[in-house]
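Continuing from the previous page of notes. For each protein in this section, the sequence appears first, followed by its structure tokens. Read the first protein now.
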Amino acid sequence: MIPLAVSEAPERLMPLPGPRAPWGLAGTNLGVVTPRRQQILEIAADLFASRGFHGVSVAELGAACGVSGPALYKHFQSKDAMLAEMLVSISETLLTEGRSRVATADGPREALEALVEWHIEFALEHRALIVVQDRDWSSLPDEARERVRALQRAYVDEWAAQIRRHDATLSPEASRTRAHVLFGLLNSTPHSGRLPDPQMHDVLRDMAHGALGLS
């Protein structure tokens, strides 16, 4: 790890790389995600997705954020900590918002429609995060990996519960299997997004609804 710089020039704030729905501002058990930390995470996600976690140096991260590499240690203890916060935060966001939408739904069909809509929104807004989680999972520190696993299991269980409420003939395991299959479809956006986002949204929604028997 590069030692924390004792003194640094004032940070030059760089614009975020395009408008996106927030996914970390609520904070995680790893620390409060301030707007500046969120900005750094957004930029890092794009770089990690493009070149891989190990293909991006701290100096390159700093340059992309408009500061020196060591200045990043004002916000994150290490590059590993940055990856951990990134992936824990998105998992918490997916689960929290998914539960919120289910809680306001009128029934299991509406709950599934809300979950599909939420996941499509996320998958279209944050393709880079999907790539990073898929490719750089093994680079996560152990504690963060276990936290992400727990959050993802809870998210799968939320989907599986609504799938089974909609079709009571399904076993719990069959419901979870369907949830995983749907995630494979919805998380394909980094590779399948050959249409403009509004059209991709409709394609993903129609295919997910068909798979769930909501058509």
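Done with the first. The second protein uses the same format. Note its length before scrolling.
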Amino acid sequence: MNITDKNIDGGKAFDWGKTSEDYAKFRDIYPQEFYDKIVNRKLCINGQTVLDIGTGTGVLPRNMYHFGAKWTGTDISENQIEQAKKLSQGLDIDYYALSAENINFPDNSFDVITACQCFWYFDHQQIMPEIFRMLKPNGRILVLYMAWLPFEDSIAGASEELVLKYNPKWSGAGETIHPIFIPDCYDKKFELIYHEEYPLNVHFTRESWNGRMKACRGIGASLADEEIMAWEQEHMKLLTEIAPAQFNILHYGAIAELKKR
């Protein structure tokens, strides 16, 4: 499903379903520390019900399943949900192909609602009252994010420049460490009770970093097949020149926890 937003990539359409296979293979990369930060907040654990909005290929529910929460995942892309179901075989996780704005679970259904790598895509004026309604008393919104740091990591910076060569209006470039932005419309119904931003080193091979970059919005989700192929050939050549066979890419993780008033 094509998504167009004038505030994202200059309005260039993108569809995560185009890159679902690469997404499933190359974007399940969060280090253990990323998940530990969630559990240390006593969230997404045994006895809790959790809704993961924008679940993609189910990375968060699958990797946190063993902590004991009952997970439900939703995503606008049917292809993403198809991959999530394949990768979650044997796990008691419910998945639905729904946009964030069309989710309609009963009142007081969830202890926690998570949004990982997707919060900025939502129509917050529409979704905020629904999140409030679906959360139990004292329920939590947990917004999560991880990004490479192009100004501090030379390999990430070079790869990012190549994305911009093929997709100059891609607005995912130039990331720096900063708190997750929470729109003002949440203030009356929720209280921001915790946030943290922290460095992370994520391990890659040339092939897996190429796959991670290919599965980003600026390449696999938005370019034509011939453009993707040309970018990938150029990117692999670049990596053989600037990167060893295995390496770490400096990222940062961010977490924001909001409590229902």
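What the second structure shows: The helical segments are 20-26, 32-40, 59-64, 78-87, 124-134, 154-166, 206-214, 225-242. The chain has eight helices and seven strands. We return to this in next week's lecture.
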